[in-house]
Amino acid sequence: MSGGGPFEAYDGPSGDDQGEEAKNGLGSPRDGDGDRTHPAPAPAPGEPPRIPLPRASVEDGELPLPDLAGLAPPHLEHRVLKSLLGAWALAACSAEETAAVEEHLGTCGSCADEARRLREAVGLLQRPESLDLDPGLRTRVLDGCLDRRPPRIPVPDWATPYDAETARLDALLQDFGDAEWHAPVRLRWFRGEGPTSRRTTVAGVIAHLLAVDGLVALALGLDDPLAGAKPAGTPAERTEAFWEASHFPPTRSVRAPWREQTHALVRTVSFTGGASRADEAPGTLPVSYGDFELPLRDALVDRAFECWVHAEDIAEAVDYPYAAPAPRHLHGMIDLAARMLPGALAERRRAGLASPAATRHLVTAGQPGRSLRLEIEGRGGGDWLIPLDAPGAVGSADHQVAHIALDDVEFCRLAAGHVSPEEAAAGQVGDREAIRDVLFAAASLSRM
Amino acid sequence: MAKKDASPRWDRRMQQRLARGEAAALGELYDRFASLVHGLAHRVLEDERAADGITREVFAHVWEHPDSYDPKQGPLRTWVATLTHRLAVQRLRATETAALARGGPGTTEELESKVRHAAVAARADYIVQSMPTPLRAALELAYFQRRDYRQTAADLGVTEDEARRRLRLGLQLLSTAHDTAAPGAPPGYGGAA
């Protein structure tokens, strides 16, 4: 038999340690292989490589052949020997069976032909290459296509961050095994004066995204993934309801419904444009979050942001790197947070958590008022003037009392409740109270 | 792992949506097939950027010519794989020929052999991905995890007879990757699906 090919045999000298190796962590392709982004380190000299090379049959190697003299090949019928050919080609039968097959091959032409073909086929078995696609490739491929043939039904600009972020998260989940799906994750957010958290698993996080994205589905008239629960509810209520409704903790089976819903949302807003009425601007349809509302176009940016934040939670739990969104998407997320800041400030003020509005500058809606300049650095950044005293006031450079400078991703971590306002790395100039209030208001935008 | 996209209804619907110019459908198409396309292209070309380029070409082709897929001829997945294979092998031959023309090392025969080898490797990948899960699982255990067929049988909870049968059948399917093509139609895409 020609066979095995030019591979170096990996079999240890005992030649009988296969069971041990399997127990020693070659159990799944990933265990033996390092993971996609952390390749297994090169083995120390003298140790076998962690990734076993394809086995050559023992007679192709330089190792001593097992002593077969004492082993009279058992007498097996042609039918049995034929059935052993696959296992034989893979060097996966006993020494006695191997000897019997090889003796048979000397006398049976049809089995010898098949044996040669199967041995050659073994040489074609290759580990799947890195399944990691460059996450930026999706946007480049789709943009290239759309340039060549403009779509008749485009995805609205305000839905593209959601489309991109859900695709990135799905790619991360692509080859998770059970261990990854059940890895513990701590959801963290900021409430009132301090951080809070809730324990779940990777699958639990996807269930959370499914349940909260369901708010958008509901607004669009699609099926609610929480069939039977009360229709709206806050994101936290919906998540807890979803987790409680299943008797068992969420498993990988949650991925498909989550992904189907994300695709359905993008598909639906592409068709309807999501206006609340035909004569209104696209994306104005109100989406209820239980205790507040966002227009659809903002709700999808918010869901894209949450998707990214939780993808990072997941990536951290399974020790993968995860990049920030594309700069223009990041910019949209920061812009939404900046627009929500005045409302968050007013709410904290009502709750006694922020300093009272400055009385000397009572402002009415639409008028310029005392402002903080929020300067976000980085490719997703920009400049925003945040009115401090009333949500309806207009930010004004002439009334600027303070200036904060933050990196784009750092600001998003703050708004996600992953960095505390005290610890956020922010350059600060001006009214200290205004700065404190805005940083805390940014953190309070976070929720489960 | 690779999911079977065997629903003819999904395929037909996808084609209609692409023909209608729905950008969201293009995104879904990418999400379903990008790793297949990129993986096959990479197996042939062994180069990340070249594989990216083929991925762009394949999706651009499907988006610009959705009608060139005929659902009656078989699954969309097979069609996409065949298209990828053809474009990647073309690209490999073109770059190798250009290198040879510039006075690079090697002969035309070596070039042809390299192209043939790459084509077989890519077909083999596709066959493994598309074969029924029980066969793939048996090969995975016996080859990558170095279990003998009795251990493989125990791991899979099947009889030893059945384990032997699966290993043999899996390799038989895989060996069709060597079959040479009628010109223009790479084999191995579909036979194993």
UniProtKB/TrEMBL annotation, chain A:
<feature type="region of interest" description="Disordered">
    <location>
        <begin position="1"/>
        <end position="66"/>
    </location>
</feature>
<feature type="compositionally biased region" description="Pro residues">
    <location>
        <begin position="40"/>
        <end position="52"/>
    </location>
</feature>
<keyword id="KW-0805">Transcription regulation</keyword>
<dbReference type="InterPro" id="IPR034660">
    <property type="entry name" value="DinB/YfiT-like"/>
</dbReference>
<feature type="domain" description="Putative zinc-finger">
    <location>
        <begin position="83"/>
        <end position="112"/>
    </location>
</feature>
<dbReference type="InterPro" id="IPR027383">
    <property type="entry name" value="Znf_put"/>
</dbReference>
<dbReference type="InterPro" id="IPR041916">
    <property type="entry name" value="Anti_sigma_zinc_sf"/>
</dbReference>
<keyword id="KW-0804">Transcription</keyword>
<dbReference type="Pfam" id="PF13490">
    <property type="entry name" value="zf-HC2"/>
</dbReference>
<protein>
    <recommendedName>
        <fullName>Putative zinc-finger domain-containing protein</fullName>
    </recommendedName>
</protein>
UniProtKB/TrEMBL annotation, chain B:
<comment type="similarity">
    <text>Belongs to the sigma-70 factor family. ECF subfamily.</text>
</comment>
<dbReference type="InterPro" id="IPR013325">
    <property type="entry name" value="RNA_pol_sigma_r2"/>
</dbReference>
<dbReference type="InterPro" id="IPR014284">
    <property type="entry name" value="RNA_pol_sigma-70_dom"/>
</dbReference>
<feature type="domain" description="RNA polymerase sigma-70 region 2">
    <location>
        <begin position="29"/>
        <end position="94"/>
    </location>
</feature>
<dbReference type="InterPro" id="IPR013324">
    <property type="entry name" value="RNA_pol_sigma_r3/r4-like"/>
</dbReference>
<dbReference type="GO" id="GO:0016987">
    <property type="term" value="F:sigma factor activity"/>
</dbReference>
<dbReference type="GO" id="GO:0006352">
    <property type="term" value="P:DNA-templated transcription initiation"/>
</dbReference>
<dbReference type="InterPro" id="IPR013249">
    <property type="entry name" value="RNA_pol_sigma70_r4_t2"/>
</dbReference>
<keyword id="KW-0805">Transcription regulation</keyword>
<dbReference type="InterPro" id="IPR039425">
    <property type="entry name" value="RNA_pol_sigma-70-like"/>
</dbReference>
<protein>
    <submittedName>
        <fullName>RNA polymerase sigma factor</fullName>
    </submittedName>
</protein>
<dbReference type="InterPro" id="IPR007627">
    <property type="entry name" value="RNA_pol_sigma70_r2"/>
</dbReference>
<dbReference type="InterPro" id="IPR036388">
    <property type="entry name" value="WH-like_DNA-bd_sf"/>
</dbReference>
<keyword id="KW-0804">Transcription</keyword>
<keyword id="KW-0731">Sigma factor</keyword>
<feature type="domain" description="RNA polymerase sigma factor 70 region 4 type 2">
    <location>
        <begin position="127"/>
        <end position="173"/>
    </location>
</feature>
<dbReference type="Pfam" id="PF08281">
    <property type="entry name" value="Sigma70_r4_2"/>
</dbReference>
<dbReference type="GO" id="GO:0003677">
    <property type="term" value="F:DNA binding"/>
</dbReference>
<dbReference type="Pfam" id="PF04542">
    <property type="entry name" value="Sigma70_r2"/>
</dbReference>
